[in-house]
Amino acid sequence: MTQPWLFLGRADEIRRFSDALALLRDEMGGYGWPTVVLVHGLGGIGKSSLLRRLRELADKHDAVAYLDFEDERRLHPPAFGGDAGPGLTTVLDAVMRACIDAMAVHHESDLEAAKGAFDEYRAAVASLPQMLDRIRAALAEAQQTGLTKEDIVALEKSAVAVGALVAHQPLALPAAAGAAAAMAQAALSRRGLWGKLTEAPKVAPDDYDLLSDPQRALVRRFGQSMGTLSGYRPLVVFLDTTEIVLAQMSWLREAMHASGDRVLWVIAARLESDQAAAADSEVAAFVRQVPSEKLRLMALTRFDDETVRQYLTSRLRGMAFDDDDVTRVAEFTKGLPLAVSLVADLLAKGATLDNACAEVARPNDSMAPITPGQVVSTLARRFLVHAERLTDDHSKQDLHRILCLAVANGYPARRPEVLRAMWDSQDDLFEALRGLATRHDFVLSGSFRLHDDVRDALRSDLMDPIRQTRIQAACQRAVEALTAELAQRRSLVPTLQGQLDSEKYLATLLDYVWYSFWKQAEAGWHAALTILPILAVTNADFRATGWPQG
Hints:
By secondary structure, the protein is mainly alpha-helical. It folds into 4 domains: 4-109 and 231-299, 3-Layer(aba) Sandwich (Rossmann fold), CATH 3.40.50; 121-218; 305-454, no CATH class; 467-543, no CATH class. The chain has 29 helices and 5 strands. The chain has a 5-stranded parallel β-sheet, sandwiched between helices. Helix 13 (249-259) links the parallel strand 3 (235-240) and strand 4 (263-270). It is globular. The relative contact order is 0.11.
């Protein structure tokens, strides 16, 4: 259960979500827009914490799908590689898996229904490679078959659009729209071209859509699959850290539109104030496209002085804070909930208010104002420095476990045996993680990973050779656990090609490289230079991450 102090000042958001839930259960399964809740704000403002609270409110009779794209990125790094983020099918497939898992919670028959609901979407995705081959063949035979220049241009654009889907690469909306327009024009002028591409005497409407506008056709089928799924029971879909997949957000909105009113979408995105206010922002796009009666905008704001007071007195019972103390904390933290929680952590560990709220140092040549992110990073480092001075066993254990979470590759529960080895503990892992999340707000209670800003600050400090010694023994134990796992997997799959074709084997291998770096930089480079070039040659998914060739 999440802590009540996390939701100070969020009563209005919780009430509005409760109203949306009630509306969801009244809907009869129409095809209008579903209700969409958009939660946005600065990093550390409390979006993920609020989503976890809203998730708790969703009735047990609803299917509740929860997807954190940060966790997905850590689980499937090749699919999320590149500056533009993941491709459309990567995003849709992740949402599909989350929805199927949500159905599995309720009843086995619902699980089978969930899998079947996506049959048309899966079939469309599976047909794309063959469709791309036919387009390429038509281009190769263009001169012999008498295709016009316009036909060739249309085929080239369609090849780009379909190829982006096959390769799981993002494609900008204008490029997809251009492909659709060109192919539609070609369809009007040369109907025989369509028969050749579809290998059928008549062109079915679904095939036409998939050839002429593949992205839109896929999201439409996906949305309709979601609508079919919600016919079995109302569906609540939480998507967190969607700033990672912003390149696909326009397509996600189309999928939402097609999903019907028995689905409730809750979207959380980290957007700076200027990003949210811009005329071409994602917030503005939601406002333009989603009917006002179906859209719930939740722009999370910073804590005011009174909320800071309530937070401190709730967290630190027995400690008194006068008006000057509260003002000082509010001004230093800029009202950012995560920063306020870090100040509370420091005070709970015995730090003075002067130490916790000391001025943030800035470079001598910088005139820029201190940002909220810099405040969080500074507080995370102060927490590390102060915790290092504590001598009681409980504090030392907490610090050790937090540092292990900071260097963990992916969310902690992904490899419980590795985390248990790092902690060198036989304690109940879930209870230990839940205890950390209860005591420290920057340990997220859903995935038990550290908040990104805190994790990044701690990792940066752990690059210091002296501090790195604190985690070297833990990372050595992780390497030993992974070495044993690799040996076991090699015994099951004895051939090198079979091992390199195994997603689980590759994930274990990359984890081995990761923890080798944290154990000792030289050992990490040796492992990387031994393993990564082999993967670059033999594994297409790894090549897609941009690893340099030749």
